[in-house]
Amino acid sequence: MDQKILSLAAEKTADKLQEFLQTLREGDLTNLLQNQAVKGKVAGALLRAIFKGSPCSEEAGTLRRRKIYTCCIQLVESGDLQKEIASEIIGLLMLEAHHFPGPLLVELANEFISAVREGSLVNGKSLELLPIILTALATKKENLAYGKGVLSGEECKKQLINTLCSGRWDQQYVIQLTSMFKDVPLTAEEVEFVVEKALSMFSKMNLQEIPPLVYQLLVLSSKGSRKSVLEGIIAFFSALDKQHNEEQSGDELLDVVTVPSGELRHVEGTIILHIVFAIKLDYELGRELVKHLKVGQQGDSNNNLSPFSIALLLSVTRIQRFQDQVLDLLKTSVVKSFKDLQLLQGSKFLQNLVPHRSYVSTMILEVVKNSVHSWDHVTQGLVELGFILMDSYGPKKVLDGKTIETSPSLSRMPNQHACKLGANILLETFKIHEMIRQEILEQVLNRVVTRASSPISHFLDLLSNIVMYAPLVLQSCSSKVTEAFDYLSFLPLQTVQRLLKAVQPLLKVSMSMRDCLILVLRKAMFANQLDARKSAVAGFLLLLKNFKVLGSLSSSQCSQSLSVSQVHVDVHSHYNSVANETFCLEIMDSLRRCLSQQADVRLMLYEGFYDVLRRNSQLANSVMQTLLSQLKQFYEPKPDLLPPLKLEACILTQGDKISLQEPLDYLLCCIQHCLAWYKNTVIPLQQGEEEEEEEEAFYEDLDDILESITNRMIKSELEDFELDKSADFSQSTSIGIKNNICAFLVMGVCEVLIEYNFSISSFSGLFFVFYSKNRFEDILSLFMCYKKLSDILNEKAGKAKTKMANKTSDSLLSMKFVSSLLTALFRDSIQSHQESLSVLRSSNEFMRYAVNVALQKVQQLKETGHVSGPDGQNPEKIFQNLCDITRVLLWRYTSIPTSVEESGKKEKGKSISLLCLEGLQKIFSAVQQFYQPKIQQFLRALDVTDKEGEEREDADVSVTQRTAFQIRQFQRSLLNLLSSQEEDFNSKEALLLVTVLTSLSKLLEPSSPQFVQMLSWTSKICKENSREDALFCKSLMNLLFSLHVSYKSPVILLRDLSQDIHGHLGDIDQDVEVEKTNHFAIVNLRTAAPTVCLLVLSQAEKVLEEVDWLITKLKGQVSQETLSEEASSQATLPNQPVEKAIIMQLGTLLTFFHELVQTALPSGSCVDTLLKDLCKMYTTLTALVRYYLQVCQSSGGIPKNMEKLVKLSGSHLTPLCYSFISYVQNKSKSLNYTGEKKEKPAAVATAMARVLRETKPIPNLIFAIEQYEKFLIHLSKKSKVNLMQHMKLSTSRDFKIKGNILDMVLREDGEDENEEGTASEHGGQNKEPAKKKRKK
């Protein structure tokens, strides 16, 4: 039969074929086709023949075709056919589908849809036919019966797609079904159906099946619904990430359920690649992505961002067109996130309303962590983002080589965090991705070398961390580092020191790099620029510190330790501890040459030698010999000659120019420290050994020289140095400059000898330290010499009325010595020591000097982060000394109060107790700045109680409890001060005490009872004490506000204070008698304005800023919730507590402004600030009204308390604002008229300028009020509530020409014209206001 059909089909006409096919029974044809196809015979040809004999023009032919189609589809689905035959059959069916009439196409499509919904498909191959059927259907113009109605082909297609998408899809056909739609012409609405269906299937599919589905969706998105596709993908993976993180952080055993981390990341990586590829082909998709993430950010930066969306954005940066846009978006998100965090941390009010969530910064670091799963497409973006953050938000200004900001202001904090985040991104990326390492290193070094003028400390810190992480890895990039070495002599000294310190571990690993550095340093040693020579010295000293000679003592203070793996490298290289010795001695030779260079270069050397010895003890001999020979050049060997030092030789005269050649004081200081170290460390170890005599010689020599200098310095008078009172110390003459230099040298030498004599006076026995009385007498004599010179210099400087440049030169005493000296002076109660110590204690001047030096050291630490002298760069040692100094100062201040001390002796200058308090204030702020993690340890060290039995319990005592204990001591002192009479009140001390309490209160946990106690105590002090000292009042009120804000919102406090201010200053209407409230005694006539007034206004401004932030957040949520009526109405419910809080805040602030607007404030900053803040108040009220305009449709009206707020603003604020404006304007007019003729023109001009400045905010305020009323009218219409009934529209701007005043002014003008000079100008000025009024 099949042969016959084929032979008939070969004829030209199909008539016989048609006749033959009609004679066959129903099942014959289908059976024949089935047998042929299964056997793999020529099914295609047979099918062509059947179609040829079944034209669609005849009904019988159409029905035959229909049956054949059904049969073929079943055949293909059965899976019994070979692949090629199945494809051929489907191909033929596709070609013939267009010939079908509409109703049969609908039937066929319905067959497919029911098969999909019932899940009866076996392999889904036949689905390839469905798009052809739907496309054919769309082209049919005639109406078709569908269901109960009649529809056109296009509408039928839409209905079928709707039915298909609303049914159940089998998981295995989702991809096929989605891909099928790309071949069907779809309207935007139909695309939306399909996309929604596909996205809803994500959660039901295996993870591995999602990337191909996403690919098909992206292809489909070219037809429309780009936004939905992107939103769906991002939302699904963000939720999946969140769930995955929760499962990993939770302790439940979810291993069975959870997707393995690696698999999830690989899938995400693939999907990101798909999206980026799609964006390259369709830029519209990229624009949609950026727009979607930008919109989500308006209310809250964390709304739309998740690790997945950030990784996607970073990958998109590889497309040139979107690079800047995306990086800018991420940069602003990061800073906005840090600003939000800062706002939240500073306000308890916001913390209670806004839940804590993860921040953009943590998400970005998570992306870095995830990128280990071969997300190479993200790394470039990460590196760019890291550098952008570091470049944009690094430290900006550099002052005297210091980039450390002493008190980071609030605006600087988010920037610092952003810069730190940039560094973290780069460091973590460096650790994970090998291929990008070279680029990161290169970019960091480029910035270090090229940005010499701007601060680059953040890049040097990053470089240091990179090198510390992997010195061996960086060997491959050594050429980059050696290239940077070539620029060393052109870089600032501080940069060179930090750069060399950062790359130091590399020098131990790479011999070639070390050799290259030495060559560069040798060249620099003889460069023209002084800075280059100093850099060379710094570099050589660093090498000496870090290349240990065999037999050197182990040192625990090594700044950068190297791991075992790196030490092994030294075995392969041919330099080791033995070779290091020749290397170090060679460097010492180079350094000796520096001793003939400028004073600055020598100074660096002297400051560095002590550290070299401490790290490399075998060099002691060489270093000490060098120092000894240098000292001998300036030492007078004859024992009876005075003075013992040749000061003339230390000064260089070149024509008229006189400068210091040899910093002799620093040379002696270096010798003294090295000697002390040698005695304490090396000699005890050598006692058991037989050492050669000459080895010891230098140590004996130096001791003798110092001894001799001491004795002769005591005997010397100032005349011996030619520095008595009659000497010339002016900075304008060469003699004066020379005398100044000599004076400072002598003072420095005295300081060094004081420390030397103290250190050898306290020689240790077996159990005790003995003090020598004679030595202490020597110390006092040396101090008297120092004091005399210091007094002369101060006196001369006072006369010259100019502060001398070197006046506050750093003290040469070491911090360790200062702490030992203070302990001995104030805390040493051992009986045997009392007699010796009484010598030093007898001089009040000496004790004050000791405390002053301690203050100087702490100030230096605050400004630069380190102190001068030995161990000054070692944070551990500094911290230890700080603890000791604090303990002594604290004891001295609390045991001998200032009042006791001052009543006894009346001396000029601050008393010791006051100096101690000043020291404590500086120390507490320095510890919080540099030693935040060690606060617990610091507070424990301050406990002066006997610690033996307490060690065990110590660990349980929290920082808050320890701080509270210290706070109580200072509170007692402040109460004692306040209980004194007004005339005895020491305002300096009170101010310092409040500053100390402020810095200590930052350590209290805001939720602790101690914090509440502190708040109520401060509040009580403000309520009960009235002092007229403005500075004290300001600092106390600041403390009150800073505590209050961390506990709850300060609006009620502001309202009470505003009532007090109103009571004291009186009303703008002089006839009104204001009732005095007296909530806070600290507010009085002297302090009410401007001090307290400006403080409360700045606090009100902060509250308005918080409220504004909340409103913006709410608006952002509303704009995202415009999904459907029901959804948005449900979604607005959680916002109710936030809305209520906003309205409460604004209501109380309204009463606050209500008081201040009626107060007769003095013209100046108070009026100015009040007008600006009122303007902000109305702007915030307008923002709230606009929010309700957005919401009121879905939520059905506005809440009652909002109506009350509007009513309050209408009755209590707006009318009063207008009367206040009139008050300000009248005040300025009266200022114009009174005594104008008598004043000089210049005085009038400044007065007028001030008036103009004060009245400038008035138009802004009027505009803000009118904007508020404009939007209220809109809201009234929308909410059907008449909100304007409470508003009295302003009449004060209906300007009238008042005849009597005009006559008076004109008469005055006429009189003025007869006079000459300035009066005519004044008349012109008087006319100005009238002109302005007419214009309006």
Mean model confidence by pLDDT: 79
- Give the DSSP E fraction (strand runs of 2 or more residues): under 5%
Count every helix, treating DSSP H or I runs of 4 or more residues as helices.
Answer: 58
The rough form would be described as flat
Count all strands and give the number.
Answer: 6
Q: Supply Rg.
A: 44 Å
Strand order of the largest sheet: 1-2
| Oligomeric state | single chain
Helix percent band: 55-70%
Major beta sheet summary? 2 strands, antiparallel
Class computed from helices, strands and strand pairing: mainly alpha
Ranges where pLDDT stays below 50 over 5 or more residues in a row are 252-257, 398-409, 555-575, 802-807, 1123-1132, 1316-1336
For the terminal residues, how far apart are their CA atoms?
Answer: 105 Å
Q: How would you describe the overall organization of this protein?
A:
- By secondary structure, this protein is mainly α.
- The chain has 58 helices and 6 strands.
- The chain has a two-stranded antiparallel sheet. Strands 3-4 form a two-stranded antiparallel ribbon. A two-stranded antiparallel ribbon has the order 5-6.
- α15 runs parallel beside α17, α40 (875-895) runs parallel beside α43 (935-942) and α49 packs parallel to α52.
- The chain is flat, with a radius of gyration of 44 Å.
Question: What's this entry about, in short?
Answer:
Helices cover 69% and strands 1% of the residues.
Helices and strands in order:
Blueprint: H1 2-10, H2 15-23, H3 26-39, H4 43-52, H5 59-78, H6 83-96, H7 102-118, H8 130-139, E1 144-146, E2 149-151, H9 153-166, H10 174-180, H11 188-201, H12 210-220, H13 226-249, H14 261-281, H15 283-297, H16 307-316, H17 320-345, H18 348-353, H19 360-370, H20 376-393, H21 412-432, H22 437-450, H23 457-469, H24 478-485, H25 493-509, H26 511-525, H27 530-546, H28 564-567, H29 569-572, H30 577-594, H31 599-615, H32 620-632, E3 651-654, E4 657-660, H33 664-686, H34 693-715, H35 734-761, E5 763-764, E6 769-770, H36 773-800, H37 815-827, H38 834-841, H39 844-864, H40 875-895, H41 898-904, H42 912-930, H43 935-942, H44 951-954, H45 959-978, H46 987-1001, H47 1009-1024, H48 1030-1047, H49 1051-1065, H50 1088-1120, H51 1125-1131, H52 1136-1157, H53 1165-1195, H54 1200-1233, H55 1241-1255, H56 1257-1279, H57 1299-1314, H58 1318-1335
Antiparallel strand pairs: 1-2, 3-4, 5-6
